[in-house]
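Support case: user asked for a sample of complex input and structure output to validate their parser. Sending the pair below.
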Amino acid sequence: MMTDLCSKIDKLAGLEAGLHDKDFLLSWQYGDETIEAVLLMAEVLEGMARSGTSTRVFDTGLGISIFRDKSTRTRYAFRAGCNLLGLMTEELDESTSQVAHGETVRETAAMISYLTEAIGIRDDMFLGEGHKYMVQVSDALCEASVKGVLIQRPAVINLQCDLDHPTQAIADLRHLVKTFGSLEALRGKKLAMTWAHSPSYGKPLSVPQGIVALMTRFGMDVVLAHPDGYQLVEEPMEAARRFAARSGGSFSVASSMGEAFRDADVVYPKSWAPASVLRERTRLLRAGEATKLAALEREALASNARFKEWECTERTMELTKGGSALYMHCLPADVSGVNCEAGEVSASVFERYRLETYREAGHKPFVIAAMILGTRFHDPSSVLRACLERKAVRRANSG
Amino acid sequence: MMTDLCSKIDKLAGLEAGLHDKDFLLSWQYGDETIEAVLLMAEVLEGMARSGTSTRVFDTGLGISIFRDKSTRTRYAFRAGCNLLGLMTEELDESTSQVAHGETVRETAAMISYLTEAIGIRDDMFLGEGHKYMVQVSDALCEASVKGVLIQRPAVINLQCDLDHPTQAIADLRHLVKTFGSLEALRGKKLAMTWAHSPSYGKPLSVPQGIVALMTRFGMDVVLAHPDGYQLVEEPMEAARRFAARSGGSFSVASSMGEAFRDADVVYPKSWAPASVLRERTRLLRAGEATKLAALEREALASNARFKEWECTERTMELTKGGSALYMHCLPADVSGVNCEAGEVSASVFERYRLETYREAGHKPFVIAAMILGTRFHDPSSVLRACLERKAVRRANSG
Amino acid sequence: MMTDLCSKIDKLAGLEAGLHDKDFLLSWQYGDETIEAVLLMAEVLEGMARSGTSTRVFDTGLGISIFRDKSTRTRYAFRAGCNLLGLMTEELDESTSQVAHGETVRETAAMISYLTEAIGIRDDMFLGEGHKYMVQVSDALCEASVKGVLIQRPAVINLQCDLDHPTQAIADLRHLVKTFGSLEALRGKKLAMTWAHSPSYGKPLSVPQGIVALMTRFGMDVVLAHPDGYQLVEEPMEAARRFAARSGGSFSVASSMGEAFRDADVVYPKSWAPASVLRERTRLLRAGEATKLAALEREALASNARFKEWECTERTMELTKGGSALYMHCLPADVSGVNCEAGEVSASVFERYRLETYREAGHKPFVIAAMILGTRFHDPSSVLRACLERKAVRRANSG
């Protein structure tokens, strides 16, 4: 175990992570070595946690989270990731404070950063807004840092915006690496990222966008499928095409779940809203148009309902390679007959892969900790090596 | 002090605590040695805290709390107990996440447990529900642990359910041990656990149930008294009868506060709701029957009002042994003329014992820490001994 | 750096801080050496943080905050200050617990203190209430400590009451010391603490009161200016007169912003409500008089609106010494044309000093940590010296 971790740390030392003193906002802004470094750091951190080695690299320090949408998984993962490194977490509750737009974002960003190492933000509700907000915070921190207001500039970690969900997508990639044995083993594997029916509306685009833009980097054949009208936004699509061309993989768009599932090694059926609906919702919410919002929801649900056959069932799973593709989901899933009448996945398929989806989610605390480690330290490999060498334990030894 | 702590740790080493990798849900599920071990661990932890010795046994790790009812005392005690051992606490706010019933409990239990050592739950509002919910969480954690989803299985700590309130009851037992000198000294002492009048309704049964099921274990003569219709549920009553028979103590039910108080060494007058009302309330809440709920509350308050003479006063205290029984309460108490017109206890009795009730409550953080220590470590005595030997201080020394 | 910190610690050792086992409620209750000691401790803590030295002096322990008003800055500063010393913070949310007035304050104070080192309270909404509440908590802790209920008595730290805002005022003083070079250099400098127009109402008096009562101690010429009807309460005014007389500075009241700004070295233009309005508001809120409250707000806003010329603009700034006085604000400021139509300060003046106000705010976490250090340790200088000598780092070293 120890030897294995050492060799991974050696490998990490050879990578140009390029994250030091930066943020992690959109995965496609970073080179492949950055992604590989985050994967490796997450793997080493998880290995150390399993072997009982403490990875407390901060004696004091804060991790601040800002959640502009509900969250269980990512909220916990951020806290757990911070704690694993020794940071105390606090959530900025905007209802009891004054984070807003424009002038005030700039001010609040400084006010919560004096002794802070990382700021995790979820802002995924409004297409065209979330990423912009994170950039505002990031810019404010740069200014405050350059001008000597801050002792240290905290890293902004994207815990899901309107464009990307990088902690999810990289945790998913860790899951694929673990399932297929290595990053190299993913080459030539087919992954189907498909829309799926849901009786709810307004689900963000960031998961499918993050998946197609990330998984195309490593030689996979990524097929995106969705009904007409459910297109993703252009920026991650463009990234996916570019990465596929460079990696020797491929990226294509299909018009049915079945076509995408055919011979797939991995399927990721998940609902999202049409971009046009999300944009209109942002506009109506701003204008305070309650009646029109209700009408928009009705229309959107009616639109979804036209595509109930986009469900991942035993029948569609049979189309996949050997009938046994890996099923993935970011959770919570809309499971037909369990938490909804007709949803993204049938009960029997979900139940078969349920514990796998828990394992998939289990990588997230380590991916977040890896991002913090990479952004906060000039040479994360030497920091990790020092953790191994000092032999501090995560919990007291007991006979 | 040091010698005293060492001898207690030696005694602890000789007990079969049997808690390792388990939960603490209902005190009557555990043998006497488990209870004794928790008492001893709490005593040692408190002694170390008083002498300034650090008991930080976790370098990193999380304690998650879920409160489905209001709480000041127990919420603080859980946080303080976790912090005493080095765990960072976080509260799962169900309004900003998605813990629900059935399928989702199973999922959420895994999602909040990847790096978690303990999950403290209060779910005491609905008779027939709270304990069931904790068992669901516990089962989900077992599955996730056995199937390798979790690195470690966190312990579920019952911070009050519909059946038991073990952190309160064991803190109360610590208070008795401290007051009377030893666990052995409790043998033959009479404890009156009695209903008392309150102008509020819906108070859970878990405190009286926890008290009668616990205090009968150590040879005390426990008398339960309540008006007709205010019976406790059968499971803890059965446990109380069984423990009394085995311990050489006794357990009986009286029909007046005076009868119970006569020659008592300890009195615990406290209000609770009739089980039938709590069951009906659960049913009506589920059915969303607001009008019927209001009617139920009126009926219940009218029922309570028929028993205003069930108040602990100077006159009833005179009936106790030497007129000076120890008064106990889990707080907050309904004090007549202070926070209500006519309540559980008269102002003068309460004021006389007020600081004693604060001392009683002060054991709770240590009892919770003891439960975590016992459930997380194979050999808590060696963990505690190592804390003593390393001589780390809880706070820096200052000339 | 190291030598510089050592000499400051030596200087600290020579001061009679007089804070050990006390609270920090109102700055004027303490002697000049106490204020100087807090300033020095804050400076040393900040210096250590900048040099990467860990100031973790608590291995475990809690800092509890109670916020009875919205807060971003002070809430963060309390958490960051606690974390810098190793304390885990928790906020007591009164909506999910039972802190109230009278009997219950006494009880809750004990319940949240068993393993707590500091309790930070903001209660600034009701004139005549906030300080009283803190004294109630303080008295309850004294009783619980003297009677042996608590292992240790936590310090109560005033995070803003109706009378004073000492963590703000001392952070402001730190900012002045840093700007002008030393505490001695403030002698003879003119500071204008002036009312300024705001389109909001009900802002507390604690900042101007805290400023005039503190800055008069060190030989500054403090001029307070406000429209008729916006007088401050007598206690801090009396303190300001007393301190000015003793320190060789001066304290006077002017009736226009221009008069106060003339030749000022420092200006602090900030809105507050008339004391009479705040008192009436307290009365009406208690009586539940919603209609009268709305009328009071209308009147108060109309009153404010009569004084729109009380705005800090480029023109008024020209009146100050060399046209370049230091502009100060506790934030958030009402900036004309930015977050309101006509506010306390023009956009161009604010923008010029914006980063300075962030630096001003940046001292607060260290001032709070200094108060905790001073109240919790008999000899803070030896505690700080030990931190320097053990050479523990705040974050892991990285090549």
